[in-house]
Amino acid sequence: MMTGAQILIESLKREGVDLIFGYPGGVLLGVYDTLYDSDITHILPRHEQGGIHAAEGYARATGKVGVCFGTSGPGATNLVTGIANAHMDSIPMVVFTGQVATSLIGGDAFQEADIIGITRPIVKHSYMLTNVEETASVIKEAFHIARTGRPGPVVIDLPKDIMAAKAKFEWPEKVNLTGYNPTVKGHLGQIKKMLRLLESAKKPVIYMGGGVVLSEANEELVKFSEITGVPVVSSFLGLGGFPGTHENFVGWLGMHGNYASNMAVSDPDFILAIGTRFSDRSTGRLDGFAPNAKIAHIDVDPASISKNVQIEVPIVGDCKAVLKQALGEIDKFNWDKNASARKEWREQIKAWDREHPFDYDRTADIIKPQYVVETIYKVTEGDAIITTEVGQNQMWAGQFYKFKRPHQFISSGGLGTMGYGFPAAIGAKLGCPDKEVFDIAGDGSFMMNMQEICTAVQNKVAVKVAILNNRYLGMIRQWQNMFFNDRFSHCDLNCQPDFVKLAEAFGAVGMRIDRKEDVEAAIRESLKVKDKPVIMDFTVDRNENVFPMIPAGASVSEMLLMQK
Amino acid sequence: MMRHTISVLVENKFGVLSRISGLFSGRGYNIESLSVNRTTDESVSIMTIVTMGDDRVVEQIIKQLRKLVNVIRVRNVSEMDHIEREMILVKVHATQRTRPDVFNIVSTFRGKTVDITNESVVIELTGANDKILAFLNVMEPYGIIEVVRTGAIAIGRGSKMTSEMK
Ligand SMILES: Cc1cc2nc3c(=O)[nH]c(=O)nc-3n(C[C@H](O)[C@H](O)[C@H](O)COP(=O)(O)OP(=O)(O)OC[C@H]3O[C@@H](n4cnc5c(N)ncnc54)[C@H](O)[C@@H]3O)c2cc1C
Ligand SMILES: Cc1ncc(C[n+]2csc(CCOP(=O)(O)OP(=O)(O)O)c2C)c(N)n1
Ligand SMILES: [Mg+2]
After folding, report:
1. What are phi and psi of A473, to 5 degrees?
2. Of A220, A246, A416, A166, nearest in space to A330 by CA
3. Which CATH fold would you assign to the domain B2-80?
4. In sequence order, what E strands does A420-552 have?
5. Is B140 exposed, middle or buried (0-12, 13-18, 19+ CB in 10 A)?
6. Which one of A48, A220, A389, A452 is the catalytic residue?
7. pLDDT tens track of chain A, all 564 residues?
8. Which of A96, A461, A474, A513 has its CA 20 to 30 A from that of A143?
């Protein structure tokens, strides 16, 4: 016989979990006592929000399921932002929350919170254990649900008495869920229909997204694009799903994407969308989005298809599996059918890109934030894992770093959570110790979870934080500058700590860089630090704005470009 | 905007009703009525949900319902040959003078009078939505005091289970 807590830990081992981020509390003490004897690595963040973002960073960097613990009440509610973040970006997570004993539930007991109710709209699924016997099977189901189909977070609430009760450990052979059976392979007829439309298109484009990263369909997609000769546009979260340096890669579309990508989706005759949910940040106003194109859409979640944009050829299935099927049929089609029109189309796209590439004033004496990102790209030879905070820093990270592989770019896309990037970087580095990991940060966002410097110091996590310090909530300043007549309401961060001293107070390395000529040397220097975090405070141009920009609710034709 | 009746077969598990009602409120779908009950299989319940929406909205509602792990089957019964019923209990003003008229209408609609006082009667009526509405319309001039409705329940015609029908 084993206690519920022992069954829990044993089940995690069976699932191959080797790293947990968690914070103890009253009702979880039994679980923590069991953990004390286990060989699973447990990392103690300094705030539950830091813990759950770190678990998500770990999941995104490794492709595995992220796991975290929080106690009942405030521990659980501190996890809410992280659960919502994982839900929005479809990241596989299993989140365990402590709960008061079943006999006390509903009585407003100390540190009781209805976390299942609170998180209901932001989970893929959730469980409250009500019987110790179901512990192992619930955990197995939870991992299965989190990682299959469209991935997402699963919450398991652990009442204290259930964790103390005893049962025999029985690890179920397989999962049996009547109501859950995601489609992996696509319908062959639909795939052929897509290929036929693609074959006869003159101005086709592939619009790929986060699903390509999640299913690691990058190799298949490269092959597919090379054989068919179709240019590839990515969403912001698709970055890394197709090599950023490939000649067929156009860039990323949307509010702050490049001119060529946005032009390419504004008037193609055919779009093959792969693993993307047509978010408003990527499509702009819908009536301006490819009004004359036929669209085929590969997505594992049927509810993503025709949600925002009407789709002619829906293909439900996993990106990788469906692309494999498509590659199996590809020789049966003639990809030279519209050779000259297609060539003209590709050249048109290249011309658009030459006309308006991502750019900034390279002659400025002051440090331009884009220059910092570009230099990090150069120094790390495009191989680092990049996490971001939210705001301008995030957009510049996407614009000036070219990603080569899935899981290399980790950013809070759907929820846009400030304070995400730093803990996510810690998780990513723990998952991929051989990779350099940089958090491209804003001064505002970094302050939302900077307590995690302590976690990184304690665990010798050598992440680098590059604060693009504009002493502003820069993205807010930009909108107030562009749309609110320079009425800078509460975006000034001139009062801020000395980040160098702050880093040092935590036992980390701090650097301040305020001259352009020191940027590269500082980044190189940071790479020499192997056993603790480095916080680099770059004093950048306070007034720099992100361009291009398609204002919210506008369409591509209203794109604002950098003034040269 | 069309009225759609959706039949949802769910696992009879903790929190299922709140997952479904929450999905409707969270995504801004409307619920005209919702009824839930056990089926012959103890572990499974059936819900009948009546909602309003254009084709795109209803397609999303159905897809979103199917995403829920505890949902086994979803059928838009409005699209198939089906029988739909709801029951109402209506309390209407009826004095000695108006009572014969009221009784007449009730019997035309095949309703039942289940309670009588000097000033009122309570009527029980079962039928499809349009019949119920027609009845309430006719009763209106007499003075409706109160209406309690079950919400619709629906079943497909023929020998197959509704959830198995195409
Ligand atoms: C300040 C800010 C600005 C932003 N600006 C932009 C912008 O300019 N452009 C932009 O694009 N985004 C921008 N974003 C991000 C935006 O909000 C969305 O997060 C992003 O566009 C979503 O990309 P996606 O739909 O490709 O990926 P996701 O949201 O990750 O969606 C993934 C899709 O793939 C599907 N999927 C998952 N797994 C699989 C699988 N195995 N097989 C098949 N399908 C699968 C899912 O069902 C889903 O439909 C911005 C965010 C912020 C915070
Ligand atoms: C938790 C949270 N609160 C508020 C916002 C709204 N918001 C988006 S960007 C931004 C400014 C971010 O400032 P900073 O981190 O300094 O980045 P910058 O834009 O200056 O690069 C704010 C407040 C948010 N995304 N997340
Ligand atoms: Mg800032």
Report:
1. -75, 85
2. A220
3. Alpha-Beta Plaits (3.30.70)
4. 437-442, 464-469, 509-513, 534-539
5. exposed
6. A48
7. 999 999 999 999 999 999 999 999 999 999 999 999 999 999 999 999 999 999 999 999 999 999 999 999 999 999 999 999 999 999 999 999 999 999 999 999 999 999 999 999 999 999 999 999 999 999 999 999 999 999 999 999 999 999 999 999 999 999 999 999 999 999 999 999 999 999 999 999 999 999 999 999 999 999 999 999 999 999 999 999 999 999 999 999 999 999 999 999 998 999 999 999 999 999 999 988 999 999 999 999 999 999 999 999 999 999 999 999 999 999 999 999 999 999 999 999 999 999 999 999 999 999 999 999 999 999 999 999 999 999 999 999 999 999 999 999 999 999 999 999 999 999 999 999 999 999 999 999 999 999 999 999 999 999 999 999 999 999 999 999 999 999 999 999 999 999 999 999 999 999 999 999 999 999 999 999 999 999 999 999 999 999 999 999 998 889 999 876
8. A461
Give the architecture (CATH level 2) of A2-167: 3-Layer(aba) Sandwich (3.40)
Say if residues A135 and A165 touch (Cβ distance below 8 Å): no
DSSP for chain B? -EEEEEEEEEE--TTHHHHHHHHHHHTT---SEEEEEE-SSTTEEEEEEEEEE-HHHHHHHHHHHHHSTTEEEEEEGGGSSEEEEEEEEEEEE--TTTHHHHHHHHHHTT-EEEEE-SSEEEEEEEE-HHHHHHHHHHHGGG-EEEEEE---EEEESSSS-GGG--
Domain ranges of chain B: 2-80, 83-153
DSSP structural state of residue A27:
G
CB-closest option in B10, B22, B71 to A121 = B22
Domain B83-153 sits in CATH at 3.30.70.1150
ipTM for the predicted complex comes to 0.93
**A4 CB burial (10 A radius; 0-12, 13-18, 19+):** buried
Token pair 């119920």: residue: B132
Residue A415: name the closest of A81, A76, A53 by CA. A81
Q: Are A77 and A97 in contact (CB under 8 A)?
A: no
Cα(A535) to centroid of ligand 3, in Å? 15
C-beta neighbour count of A429 within 10 angstroms: 29
Q: Which two tokens stand for residue A265?
A: 């989706």
- Ligand nearest, relative to CA of residue A278: 1
Q: Are strands A409-410 and A464-469 parallel, antiparallel or unpaired?
A: unpaired
**Which one, of B14, B63, B42, B64, lies nearest residue A156 by Cα?**
B14
Ligand 1 pocket test, pick from A85, A122, A150, A323 with the greatest ligand atom count within 8 Å of Cβ, gives A150
Q: Domain spans of chain A?
A: 2-167, 188-355, 369-547
A159: helix, coil or strand?
Answer: strand
- Give φ, ψ of A317 to 5 degrees: 165, 175
Token pair of A220 as six digits: 């298949």
CA–CA separation, B96 and B119 (whole Å): 8
Between the alpha carbon of residue A9 and those of residues A73, A172, A503, the distances in Å are 22, 15, 35
Question: Which architecture does CATH list for A188-355?
Answer: 3-Layer(aba) Sandwich (3.40)
Task: Out of A124, A140, A160, A294, pick the active-site residue.
Answer: A160
Which amino acid residue places its CA nearest to atom 47 of ligand 1? A301
Do the Cβ atoms of B111 and B125 come closer than 8 Å? yes
Block residue for tokens 């912001």: A236
Domain A369-547 - what CATH class?
A: alpha beta
| DSSP 3-state of A14 | helix
A417 CB within 6 A, ligand 2: yes
Enumerate the residues of chain B whose CB falls inside 8 A of the CB of residue A117. Answer: 15, 18
Q: What is the distance between the alpha carbons of residues B77 and A370, in angstroms, rounded to a whole number?
A: 56
